[in-house]
């Protein structure tokens, strides 16, 4: 049976970067005081809206997309449990993307200016939040390089491994058979492929004993070969921070 992360709070995400004090954890908890259930297909924000509200994603999946004037959709990013959503567009006067729930779930909205208070009170959280935003950007950049340089099989292998390692990072119970609520058309919108091309490539990869995609999950059949085909390096998504910065942080002692 496919596995999927349970509810994940933003603290679970940020503690991968550095040790947080009890004060830091309490500050983060203030961002998740108002959990709200959200439905599949619910829009959290639209392009051109001012980023007054940010969200932590406690449960479920969401995606950001660009919609052309002709109505064509391009999926740009996938948000998973524990992600802080909207942080990359925070300093702009308006959002540049739409964000929609891919599944039902739970989000915690909070005023964007709440981050300013956190930044003033905790250098450690400031660095961790910056690291989370930078990591999101690196994932998108590496996916773009993969799309531009590789064939269809490598594109799909790279994206599947990205999801696998991201999910496993916040939930060690995730196995190589894991829930993925993405249709073949979603793969196409994200990887720049037609639905027919995605379908044909997935069938080939299953016949080759690489992976199996059903409507609701993915099973990795040969992890080593997928890593080789995609040139995916999990170590390049490291949570290690620049030691010059971490050395200047105050000790995360009890508070």
Your description of this structure?
- It comes from Modicisalibacter tunisiensis.
- Keywords: DNA-binding, Transcription, Transcription regulation.
- InterPro entries: cNMP-bd_dom, cNMP-bd_dom_sf, Env_Response_Regulators, HTH_CRP, RmlC-like_jellyroll, WH-like_DNA-bd_sf, WH_DNA-bd_sf.
- By secondary structure, the chain is an alpha+beta fold.
- The chain has one domain (about 10-245): Jelly Rolls (Sandwich), CATH 2.60.120.
- The chain has helices spanning about 10-15, 20-30, 115-120, 125-150, 150-170, 185-190, 195-205, 225-230, 245, and strands at about 35-40, 45, 55-60, 60-65, 75-80, 85, 100, 105-110, 175-180, 210-215, 215-220.
- The protein has a four-stranded antiparallel sheet with strand order 1-8-3-6. Strands 2-7-4-5 form a four-stranded antiparallel sheet. A three-stranded antiparallel sheet has the order 9-11-10.
- Helix 5 (about 150-170) packs across helix 8 and helix 6 packs across helix 7.
- The protein is globular.
- The chain starts with 9 loop residues before the first helix and ends in a 9-residue tail after the last helix.
């Amino acid at each position: 049976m496919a596995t999927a992360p349970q509810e994940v709070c933003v603290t679970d995400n940020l503690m991968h970067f550095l040790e947080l004090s009890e004060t830091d954890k309490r500050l983060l908890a203030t961002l998740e005081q108002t959990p709200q259930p959200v439905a599949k297909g619910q829009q959290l924000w639209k392009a051109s809206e001012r980023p007054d509200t940010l969200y932590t994603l406690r449960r479920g999946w969401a995606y950001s997309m660009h919609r052309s004037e002709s109505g064509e959709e391009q999926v740009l990013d996938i948000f998973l449990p524990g992600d802080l959503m909207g942080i990359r567009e925070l300093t702009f006067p308006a959002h540049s993307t739409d964000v929609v729930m891919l599944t039902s779930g739970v989000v915690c909205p909070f005023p964007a200016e709440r981050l300013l208070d956190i930044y003033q009170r905790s250098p450690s959280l400031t660095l961790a939040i910056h690291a989370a935003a930078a990591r999101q950007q690196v994932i998108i950049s590496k996916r773009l390089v993969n799309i531009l340089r590789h064939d269809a099989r490598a594109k799909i292998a790279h994206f599947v491994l990205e999801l696998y390692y991201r999910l496993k990072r916040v939930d060690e119970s995730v196995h190589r058979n894991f829930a993925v609520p993405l249709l073949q058309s979603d793969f196409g919108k994200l990887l720049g492929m037609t639905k027919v091309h995605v379908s044909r490539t997935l069938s080939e990869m299953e016949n080759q004993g690489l992976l199996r995609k059903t409507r609701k999950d993915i099973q990795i059949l040969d992890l080593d070969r997928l890593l080789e085909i995609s040139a995916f390096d999990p170590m390049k998504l490291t949570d290690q921070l620049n030691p010059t910065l971490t050395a200047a942080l105050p000790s995360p002692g009890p508070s």
